[in-house]
Write a structure and sequence with these properties.
- The radius of gyration is 15 Å and the shape is globular.
- The chain is built from six helices and six strands, in the order βαβαβαβαβαβα.
- It is an alpha/beta fold.
- Magnesium ion (MG) binds next to loops.
């Protein structure tokens, strides 16, 4: 039970991911959640540390996609913060992805030109990011929420059930 909800690996934060390991097992695309994975909920644009790190990934040849359940305006504003000049390959973004449904993952993989098995979904929530990623056939990486104290009430509610699954 709950097998589909277990992440392939757990990391403290995105910055602790072992990228050479991911590359060695054939991962070519990284699909990120925004809220509490890349930056805290209230943060409208990516910070310098994040931009720098993602552009390094891009330079290493990883395709990068943002798949978020947030509204179009939020996702667009956030992704506009990635300077185009710093990314050899376009950052793909999918808003209102409806995770854990497959449509957002499907669109991201299609636009990256990759099979689900060549991608890793990185997120902070079991019932959207991990469950959805697993069902679609991505490798899944669960990170700790950056600022859990700023989470909306419905997310906090889900955290209770996440503890049961893990
Ligand atoms: Mg999140």
């Amino acid at each position: 039970m709950f097998e589909n909800m277990k992440p392939s690996i757990k990391c403290r934060s995105i910055y602790d991911m072992d990228l050479s390991e991911l590359k060695s097992i054939g991962i070519r695309g990284l699909i990120f959640d925004i809220d509490n994975t890349l930056e805290p909920y209230a943060q409208e644009v990516p910070g310098d540390k994040l931009c720098q790190w993602l552009s390094e990934l891009s330079a290493k040849g990883f395709r990068i996609a943002i798949v978020s359940n947030a509204k179009e305006a939020r996702v667009e504003r956030f992704c506009a913060g990635f300077p185009k000049s710093a990314f050899p390959l376009e950052v793909i973004s999918v808003a209102q992805a409806g995770k854990p449904l497959e449509k957002g993952f499907k669109e991201a993989c299609f636009r990256m030109g990759l099979e689900p098995g060549q991608t890793a979904m990185i997120g902070d929530q079991i019932f959207t990011d991990i469950w959805g990623g697993n069902r679609f056939g991505c490798m899944t990486i669960l990170v700790k929420p950056i600022a859990p104290e700023k989470e909306p009430p419905f997310v906090r509610f889900k955290r209770f059930f996440e503890k049961i699954v893990l």
